[in-house]
Amino acid sequence: MLALEQEWLGSGLPVAALMEAVGQAMASWFLQRRNRLENGVLILVGPGHNGGDGLVLGRRLMHAGIAVRLWAALPLRRSLTQEHWRHLEWLGADVLKTEPDPMDSALWVDALFGLGQKRPLPETLALLLRKRQRVCPRRLISLDVPSGMDSNTGVSYGGGSAVASDTLCVGLIKRGLVQDAALANVGCLHRLDPGVPIRLIAQLKDSPVLRVNAKDLVTLPVPPERPAAMKYERGRALLVAGSEHYPGAALLAARGALASGVGSLKAVLPETVADSIWQWMPELVLAASLAATQSGGLDWGQWLANADLSRLDSLLLGPGVGALDGKWDDWAEPLLAFQGLLVLDADALNALAASNEGWCWLRRRQSPTWITPHRSEFDRLFPDMRQLEPLEAARAAAAGSGVVVLLKGAHTVIADPNGALTQIVETSVQGARTGLGDLLAGFAVGWGARIVACEQKPDGIALTAAALVHAQASITCETGTSAGLIAERLAVMTRKICGN
After folding, report:
1. What is the sign of the dihedral through the CA atoms of 196, 202, 204 and 210?
2. Which of 49, 43, 53, 62 is nearest to 22 (CA)?
3. Which of 17, 282, 335, 438 is exposed most, by the fewest CB atoms within 10 A?
4. Adjacency order of strands within the sheet including 140-143
């Protein structure tokens, strides 16, 4: 955004004109919500152009009959900001000479520091913002970026950052604002367009992260249907899931796979599940019923060594299979030769992390692979990337391993080995429940099988599509928040989206 702004201003656009456009866009947003302005507005004015944006907003609100007060937390540095301040004083805006009362009834506007913050807030200012949130929660709105926050990572500097009910982001969405670390401070995120020329966005040197939400469901890349396709031509998937300790993981992964609309689904299951699976899922074909290891995990190694995987489009290994007792190096060799899509989740990733090669094993796979770790699993598998924030961690892992990485979080990140990054930015806290990860893994392997059966590439966009449908099923499920109920919603959504 900084580069875009510099090029835009370099074209001859006056800084004052850009500030006016930004302030006008912000004022329009506020005036559409007049009920929040009944007690007036207090603008916390920063020393730079973010403060100037806030002052333009204040002038527009005054013209609309809203009571506006100003407080400069620090000396104003930019001449344009100083000019706007003098004009508002001339218009009659009430200027506070001392620090405002945190219990002030007005709506506070955080126009302190915007894009490019690199240092903590002054201690007294950080303390004031903390008090405001404690005594008057959801009575502060941030302009562009909550003050005290790194706009690239979403991490708050020492002392914390403003906690906003809403953040009005100008131009491009700053990627830090949609990261898990920022969500509690950003509140509802709104993008305001001050008229950025489309060609400037098209000329960006760095590939932006693709922000994915519910609106993208209408253009979702889905597996194409062939009218005369038989079941085996609509994807053939195999699950290796569950154990004595986690029998439910197998059931939920299977429900996710069935919800994907995959044509043929087989499963390798623990004996405790296999004996009764036909009562729950008569559509599922039992490929093998396996005993447990000494530690209670699924003993799948010998079965895999003798299995014929040639007629499969995809294979999922991991949900609930339990500890492998250090046997990944002996057991997983046949997976290297598997020519379909391999999906590794949960306990499979933990076993891989503990193996001799670790994540480098993935580089020996010649066929497509998806991995779906949450952050703890990711850090075990890629220990050298622990300190990286989610976007960079996922990108580095995908580039190094050559596989598509889905890094789970409140806002899940999907990284393709070619460098493309997508992030799902509309999710529900209800998705953070036991079983939703198993459901996603099963849905992904079924969706991936359909992609492969249609001779399409199971790339990062394909996995993003599956993850988005899963996320939206969690958000829109009206009957409850359990994985079982969301599985039902997932099946309904898939049929509607894919038309299958």
Report:
1. positive
2. 53
3. 282
4. 94-95, 68-72, 41-45, 107-111, 140-143, 166-170, 188-192
What is the residue extent of each domain of the chain?
2-206, 215-498
Q: Does domain 215-498 have CATH number 3.40.1190.20?
A: yes
Q: Is there a contact between 25 and 192 (Cβ–Cβ < 8 Å)?
A: yes
In angstroms, what CA-CA distances link 414 with 129, 221, 300, 315, 389? Answer: 34, 15, 29, 19, 13
| Cα 184 to Cα 385: distance, rounded to the nearest angstrom | 24
Q: CA separation (Å) from 293 to 25, 122, 254, 305, 427?
A: 63, 57, 22, 16, 37
Alpha-carbon gap, residue 85 to 90, rounded angstroms: 9
Q: Are 498 and 222 in contact (CB under 8 A)?
A: yes
What does each of the 500 residues of the chain score in pLDDT, given as a tens digit? 888 888 899 999 999 999 999 999 999 999 999 999 999 999 999 999 999 999 999 999 999 999 999 999 999 999 999 999 999 999 999 999 999 999 999 999 999 998 888 899 999 999 999 999 999 999 999 999 999 999 999 999 988 999 999 999 999 899 999 999 999 999 999 999 999 888 888 887 777 789 999 999 999 888 887 777 888 888 999 999 999 999 999 999 999 999 999 999 999 999 989 988 888 899 999 999 999 998 899 999 999 999 999 999 999 999 999 988 889 999 999 999 999 999 999 999 999 999 999 999 999 999 999 999 999 999 999 999 999 999 999 999 999 999 999 999 999 999 999 999 999 998 877 777 888 999 999 999 999 999 999 999 999 999 999 999 999 999 999 998 899 999 999 999 999 998 74
* Per-residue DSSP letter, 156: B
Strands 413-415 and 188-192: unpaired
Question: What is the Cα–Cα distance from 90 to 102, expressed in whole angstroms?
Answer: 26
Q: What does 447-485 look like in DSSP terms, one character per residue?
A: HHHHHHHTT----HHHHHHHHHHHHHHHHH--S-SSHHH
CATH code linked to domain 2-206 = 3.40.50.10260
> How many whole angstroms separate alpha carbon 252 and alpha carbon 112?
48
